[in-house]
Amino acid sequence: MILHTVNKSPYSSQCLSDCLNRVSAGDKVILIEDGVYGATIATDALPSLHSFIQRLLASQVGFYTLRPDAEARGLEAISEQSAFKLLSDHEFVDLVVEANKVLNWY
Amino acid sequence: MGHQLICDLRLLTSMKFTIVILGAPYTDEAAESAFRFTQAALEKNHQIYRLFFYHDGVHNASSLITLPQDEIQPAQRWANLIAQYDLEAIVCIASSLRRGLLNETEAKRFSKPASNLTPGFKLAGLGDLVDAAQQSDRLITFGPTS
Amino acid sequence: MNDKRILLVCRIAPYGNSLARESLETALAAGAMGAKITLLFLDEGIWQLVGQHKPETIGHKNHAAMLSALPLYDIEQVLVDQDSVDKRNIGSAELSEIAELIDGHRVKEIFADHDVVLSF
User: Fold this and answer.
1) What is the extent of the structural domain holding B114?
2) Does B61 reside within a domain?
3) Which residues of chain B have pLDDT under 70?
4) DSSP assignment, residue B30?
């Protein structure tokens, strides 16, 4: 399993879609910093990315947001209702340990 | 079930991490993210093999950063963590010289009026980044935000 | 020295930001140390391989000249992602021959085949 971090908003940067184009089944993706704005992706916000994420969820790709970054930006509630599971800093460390390696998209 | 067990055991193991920091303090969130990650890893009893400050990340080591007292003091905060856990914090020498971050030796060598590397940080070459990639169990990069 | 396979992923265009240059310096350092390193140009990183650079017009050193040093430093593999090239309307004739074109499927295999990734 590869853990991918993404730190840019999908509304301003190709970073998330560049990452998603290269994930494999079983990989995990965590949104950090401005990346957490990606938790707002829905059928009527960036629809093609939304359906891409739905397909990847079906192939066991895990999606997460970093809680301190989401909370700082007032996105906690939105994140909780999204496909992205909120993780603490400690859980982020656990995810890095669980992964074989980390790829950082920025 | 078996897979779950392997994952759980792995989480109990202490691992050697290297953290690469590419963002300047204040401007970018990268250094803040890296700091919290480092702290969380240490709290979970992992080891930090090396902190490697590269690109604009070298600015984190500047002793001349001046912020209001109620704000986080980046270099001092790193220096405290480095001292508390006896961490190795390498600042890439080539990136540093180009950005005006010098220790006393370099300041003398290039006849500069001052040095500004915070104690606790060390200037060294890129070989230390390559070595860290080879020797650590996990390497994570915090890239620039801007 | 341990023989971990290091993948250096370079996603940054040259000149606009020093990170492209600093990523190549990392690759050269790894090569000089005899590390097992693969360099992969992805996304905006492919611009490093495109066209005849004349960076003196903006007071820069030539990035392509640094690229040409890669073989001298024993970098095992230099790869470029075909999808990133196609997306930018670049023909393979316009690409530096220093890198081998690989498809998206191979990119994922390259990720899987390496032990550690330096992400630039």
Assistant:
1) 13-142
2) yes
3) 1-11
4) H
| Dihedral angle computed from the Cα positions of residues C16, C22, C25 and C30, in that order, rounded to the nearest 10 degrees | -140
Judge whether B78 lies within some domain.
Answer: yes
Note the pLDDT of residue C85.
97
Residues of chain A short of pLDDT 50, as ranges, are none
Look at residue B8 and tell me if it is in a domain: no
CA–CA dist B72, B40 (Å, integer): 18
CB B86 within 8 A of CB B122: no
The answer to whether the CB atoms of B30 and A101 lie below 8 A apart is no
Beta bridge partners of B105: none
Contact assessment for residue B42 and residue B85, using Cβ atoms and an 8 Å cutoff: yes
Longest pairwise C-alpha distance within chain C = 43
The structure tokens listed for C38 are: 């693969």
pLDDT digits (tens, 9 = 90+) for C86-109: 999 999 889 999 999 999 999 999
Q: Give the mutation candidate from A15, A33, A100 for the B interface (greatest B CB count, under 10 A).
A: A33
Contact C111 A104 (CB under 8 A): no
Q: Which residue has the tokens 């820069």?
A: C60
Q: Domain containing A95: what range?
A: 2-105
Model confidence band, residue C65 (pLDDT cutoffs 50, 70, 90):
confident
